[in-house]
Design brief:
The complex is a heterodimer of chains A (about 120) and B (about 120). Chain A is mostly beta strands and about 120 residues long. Chain A contains no helices and 11 strands. The model of chain B has no long low-confidence stretch (mean pLDDT about 95). Classes of the chains: A mainly beta (about 120), B mainly beta (about 120).
């Protein structure tokens, strides 16, 4: 069965260090992989999208890699700040059009990042 | 982009009752999506709501339990019927484009507690 795993439920990191979050998937062949941020009591907010033929994508202090051979994406936050503390979700966009009329988006459970001052 | 207003933001309900969650989008969209997020779990798609047709439900979710309305291109409701404590969860509405390279936008979520 298809599965998305984010390496840990929680990650604590010292302010200023680089946080690295992992997303692994099995039995998937996604065309796109996305990362979202979710704060308590809020809906997820889109951060970055990467295509299957892109190795790396950057946005300010964020960097995403996508290795379709390893079936893995890494999400990096450099020079982390306490304001980066949140839950980060990876999501895969299916290659096939679903019966509901869309390319279904499937989420991992998320990793709760805490940046310690 | 899309701005989604969802209400109520939270509610505590008695077992056996029903709650209707509303979702308003600031632009016209073809599809709206309803997700459930149980504690410590990933977002799980409940159903896709298209304007002018019946919602499409995912495996494990049925219309009798989660009836959905989609009266126009900017609004949808999800009802959680005959609630039990197992329905305690966060419910989220979302929109995204048809194409694979589009991101999803979410409402703030409705935190439901059934007692």
């Amino acid at each position: 069965s298809q599965k998305i795993e984010q390496n840990s439920e929680a990650l604590n990191i010292q302010e200023g260090k680089t946080a690295t979050l992992t997303c692994n998937y099995t039995n998937y062949s996604p065309a796109y992989l996305q990362w979202y941020r979710q704060d308590p009591g809020r809906g997820p907010v889109f951060l970055l999208l990467i295509r299957e033929n892109e190795k790396e994508k950057r946005k300010e202090r964020l960097k995403v890699t996508f290795d379709t051979t390893l079936k893995q994406s890494l999400f990096h936050i450099t020079a982390s700040q306490p304001a980066d503390s949140a839950t980060y979700l990876c999501a895969l966009r299916a290659r096939a059009y679903s019966g509901a009329g869309s390319y279904q988006l499937t989420f991992g459970k998320g990793t709760k990042l805490s940046v310690i001052p | 982009s899309a701005v989604i207003s969802q209400k109520p933001s939270r509610d505590i309900c008695q077992r056996g009752t029903s709650l209707t969650i509303q979702c308003q989008v600031d632009s016209q969209v073809t599809m709206m999506f309803w997700y459930r997020q149980q504690p410590g779990q990933s977002l799980t798609l409940i159903a896709t709501a298209n304007q002018g047709s019946e919602a499409t439900y995912e495996s494990g979710f049925v219309i009798d339990k989660f009836p959905i309305s989609r009266p126009n291109l900017t609004f949808s409701t999800l009802t959680v019927s005959n609630m039990s404590p197992e329905d305690s969860s966060i419910y989220l509405c979302s929109v995204h484009g048809r194409q694979q390279n589009t991101e999803a936008f979410f409402g703030q979520g409705t935190r439901l507690t059934v007692v």
